[in-house]
Amino acid sequence: MELKDKIVVVTGAASGIGKAMAIRFAAEGAKKVVCVDLNKDGAKEVADSIGGVAFGVNVGVEQEIVDMIEAVEADIGPIDLFCSNAGILTAGGMEVSNDDWQRIWDINVMSHVWAARHLVPRMTERGGGYLLNTASAAGLLNQVGCAPYGVTKHAAVALAEWLAMTHGDDGIKVSVLCPQAVRSEMTRGHEESVAALDGMLEPEPVAEACVETIRNETFLVLPHPQVLDYMRKKTDNYDRWIGGMRKLNRQFGDIRNPKKASS
């Protein structure tokens, strides 16, 4: 799919990957880029810079996503590409509270479900559309020190797979973005984390990778090409891969206490 003259929605658009996506999609000639973020002022700043439109939305609440979709389609036009990009990081393991588990589940997984629930029927009726869901390399490889993050990102990848295999015949294209470390508010303070071992990318090349993937209509967006090799090693010998991840866990497992993790 070419982005020229398309109506595009990007969540988490006030900063980081989402901001870079919005700017890059506008440069491709998108008809209108809708910048969505909990930080409405930040979203508006990005939207104003590219001639877009801003919405303040908590993607962890289904009705707010519904209201935004309905407003965009009523006032701007049918959404061609929806980038469900907003996400959060929660560190820790089984001790993380139920409330925090639920919050990250709603934002990292259910926001994708809710967007698809209310867009796929509309897109199908008009002959097709595109969903780009941001997951993470953690959704393919897991994340030491962050059980809620690794679990929810796995679920996000599984949902994208399910959408692609279930609605591909309806004209719904699906891609899932799975980068390692990208410079953003989420990674601030974690520049030496395990996810940054292969380098921390700036958001702009990640957005460029998304444009190329959308143009080619391929499923996986891997701005860090090493991730594909790690996936192959994982499936080649799962036990050996677990052993390697245990070594990384000993070094990086407690991301809230780097001195303890490296001791």
UniProtKB/TrEMBL annotation:
One of its GO terms (molecular function) is oxidoreductase activity, acting on the CH-OH group of donors, NAD or NADP as acceptor. It comes from the Bacteria. The lineage of its organism: Bacteria, Pseudomonadati, Pseudomonadota, Alphaproteobacteria, Rhodobacterales. Belongs to the short-chain dehydrogenases/reductases (SDR) family. It comes from Sulfitobacter marinus. SUPFAM superfamilies: NAD(P)-binding Rossmann-fold domains. Coiled coil: none annotated. This is NADP-dependent 3-hydroxy acid dehydrogenase YdfG. Keywords: Oxidoreductase.
